[in-house]
Structure formats: structure tokens, C-alpha cells
Specification:
Blueprint: H1 2-42, H2 52-75, H3 78-102, E1 112-114, E2 120-122, H4 132-138, H5 141-153, H6 164-170, E3 180-182, E4 185-187, H7 198-201, H8 215-266
Antiparallel strand pairs: 1-2, 3-4
Length: about 270
């Protein structure tokens, strides 16, 4: 009798841990949903979330999906858990596949690439490395215009706590341009190998222009966009692993309960 009681207690503790584990994604996605709603209502002061309407839609989708999944775990409805896992698996595959395809070009995100003409530029800032379809989708006139308006309105380059990639790609001319910093003003070089390059020609000391039209800025914008979605994919993959564990334990608990019922029926 004592052995059966100990086993039952162990299963209850295990089941409680399963429920707590399944609640973690709900709390995280709920926090992300609230944060996204706040940004959507009040605006993004750092301009690092250029597609808030999409972020909000995804946050709602993730929260609802995780909530339904928890209901399936708590109620021990295997069908609900299985359906949620299938939807989650499809979402993870799509997110990670798309981000991997987009970033397949710039593989050395923080290294120096050397092209045939000897030009050096950090690969993450090379716009030509990204697929044409990705550039057309992410850099469409509406979204790119919203971002440019945001960086001017929020005095983007004056903030030191924003994404370093954005600052490096959008707020200063690339090193290879040869600009000279004199009293916090970049002076155009008299000559240079790349003085006619897009990133050099479009640079301006005007706070409303800077390098916001540069290919380096566009590339940094794409990189940040893809990075955000890659993080979502990674989080959902972790959730998928947690759910798989929950579903496995749920099956084990059901099997154990079924065995107990069978033993009771078979007992004289």
C-alpha cells in the first residue's frame, strides 16, 4: 500500500511539473503580447520594430496557440495537444526556413568580405547579399518609408542604447569611404577608391539624412527584421520541445491510470 501511495504521489508531482512547464510559453508570449500592444499604441521609440502590425498579429497567434495547448495539457486532451504541436511545428519550420534562406548570402555577419575590386565592408551591410524577393518584400516603399520617418522623428542616431548594427549601418559612413571626422563632422575626402559608392555618395551630415538612404542602412534593416523572426522561431522550437515532453508524460500518466483501473477490476 505504501508503495502505491508513493507512486501516486510521484505521478502527481510529475504532472504538476508538466503543467508548470507548459505554462512557461504562455507567460512569455503573454508578456510579449502586452509589450507589443504598448509599442503599437504608443509607437516604437527605437524604430527597431518596423512592422508592429505584423508583430501584433503574430503575438496574438502565439499567445492563443500556447493557451489552447496548456488547456490540452491540463485537461489531458491528447487531440488538442497533438493539433497544437502540428501547428507549432509548421510555424517553426516556416520561420526558420525563411530566415535561413534570407541569411544564406551574408554568412560572415561580423567578418570582413573582400570583393574582386578590393572593397572591404562587413557582410551584414552588403545589400546585394540578400535575395531579390526578400528585398522587395521587406524594403517595399511603404515599410521603408515608415522606418525612415521614424528614425528622423525619434532622432535615431542620437541614442546610444539602440541596436549597434543599426547605428553602424545607418548613422555613420562606412570606413572604406575615407571620410574624416573633424569636430564631429564627417568631411568628404578629396579622393578615394570608393568615393562613388552608394553608401558614400548618399551619406550626409544632415541629422535628417545621415545614411538613411544608404544600402548599408537597408541591409542592417533587413538583418534586424530577419533576426527578430529568427528569435521567434527559436522560442517556438523550444516550446515545441516542452510540449513534446508534456505530451509524452501525459501518455505515461494515462497508461499508469489505465493499469491501476485494470488492477482494481482484476482484484478479488
Amino acid at each position: 500500500m505504501a508503495t502505491k501511495t508513493s507512486a501516486a504521489t510521484a505521478w502527481r508531482i510529475l504532472y504538476t511539473l508538466v503543467i508548470i512547464g507548459s505554462l512557461i510559453p504562455v507567460f512569455v508570449s503573454g508578456y510579449n503580447l502586452i509589450d507589443t500592444i504598448i509599442l503599437f499604441v504608443h509607437g516604437d521609440p527605437d524604430c527597431t520594430h518596423p512592422h508592429l502590425e505584423r508583430d501584433l498579429g503574430f503575438a496574438i497567434f502565439a499567445f492563443v496557440l500556447f493557451l489552447i495547448g496548456v488547456i490540452g495539457v491540463v485537461a489531458r486532451v491528447d487531440v488538442i495537444q497533438a493539433i497544437c504541436m502540428i501547428v507549432l511545428l509548421i510555424t517553426v519550420v516556416l520561420l526558420l526556413a525563411v530566415t535561413m534562406i534570407i541569411t544564406a548570402g551574408p554568412q560572415e555577419l561580423f567578418g570582413l568580405n573582400h570583393s574582386d575590386d578590393g572593397k572591404k565592408i562587413v557582410s551584414v551591410f552588403r545589400l546585394e547579399k540578400y535575395p531579390r524577393w526578400a528585398k522587395n518584400f521587406i524594403l517595399n516603399d511603404k515599410d521603408w518609408g515608415v522606418f525612415q520617418a521614424c528614425v528622423v522623428r525619434e532622432k535615431f542616431c542620437e541614442k546610444l542604447d539602440i541596436d549597434a548594427l543599426f547605428q553602424e549601418g545607418c548613422c555613420s559612413p562606412p570606413v572604406y569611404c575615407g571620410y574624416q571626422d573633424i569636430n564631429k563632422t564627417w568631411v568628404v575626402p578629396k579622393s578615394g577608391l570608393y568615393h562613388e559608392d552608394n553608401n558614400c555618395v548618399n551619406w550626409s551630415n544632415d541629422d535628417n539624412k545621415r545614411c538613411y538612404h544608404c544600402n548599408a542602412c537597408k541591409a542592417a534593416y533587413i538583418n534586424n527584421y530577419v533576426y527578430e523572426w529568427a528569435l521567434r522561431g527559436a522560442f517556438m522550437f523550444i516550446t515545441l520541445v516542452i510540449w513534446f515532453g508534456c505530451l509524452t508524460f501525459t501518455f505515461d500518466i494515462d497508461d499508469e491510470n489505465n493499469k491501476r483501473e485494470d488492477n482494481k477490476l482484476c482484484s478479488p
